[in-house]
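[User]
If only I could read backbone structure tokens as easily as an amino acid sequence. I have put the entry right below:
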Amino acid sequence: MSAASAEHVASNEPLLKVRELDKHFGPVQALYHINLDLPSGQVTALCGDNGAGKSVLTKCIAGIYQPDHGQVFWEGQPVHIRAARDASRLGIETVYQDLALADNLDIVQNMFLGRERLRNRLLDEDNMERAAKETLASLRVTTVRSIRQPVASLSGGQRQSVAVAKAVMWNSKLVIMDEPTAALGVVQTKMVLDLIKRLRDRGLAVMVISHNLNDVFEVADRIAVMYLGRVVVQDQTSSFDRQSVVEYMTTGGLGRSGGRRTQES
């Protein structure tokens, strides 16, 4: 363990901290003074209505966009994430809603796309197959018929599982998932939610962007709500119920309810 990692663990710092982050697109300000904590071993749900700024914030963390102001801390140290490869180098992997999988390639080829392993200048198929199989097994992804079947033949839940396995294969410490259960049926949704819990149990930090509050309350340890480019609240899931999350999402605060309530049983 590096000195920075040891210090991070000892101080119980969040794995990733965002402080006072702003982002403009020309005259339009998309993010205002964002503060966000993503601790290891916890699932943080990022909620907000369309246009709240969730995607912009995610892309700033993932290195797609450059913030105009503010600081990102990784394991307690200030970092500059200027490109997606900088994020990957730190251990940040993002699973976008479109999953970015190639339908015409099989599972192994997708998991190693752009990161192929070579041996004597040839593709080391055995090595890649073994690593893909081990990663899928460690995440208990057991429903795929063969790791050599084309991704086009997979169900929505299986595709999501392959995309997550691809993300965690590269020593990731933070996995960001954008609407991971969108358009999935009940059985496939449960498969993906169980997968998210396994990532948390492995000690990873997970950020899930979701509109589905049933899913949020099923897997999230913490909830952060965005409204018009601001994080208006973040706290343990037990501090919220569905109604209070909806109020924060739609009005930016709590009105008549007067405060956060304990989650109803």
Remarks:
- Residues 112 and 128 are 7 Å apart (CA to CA).
- Residues 186-201 form the longest helix (16 residues).
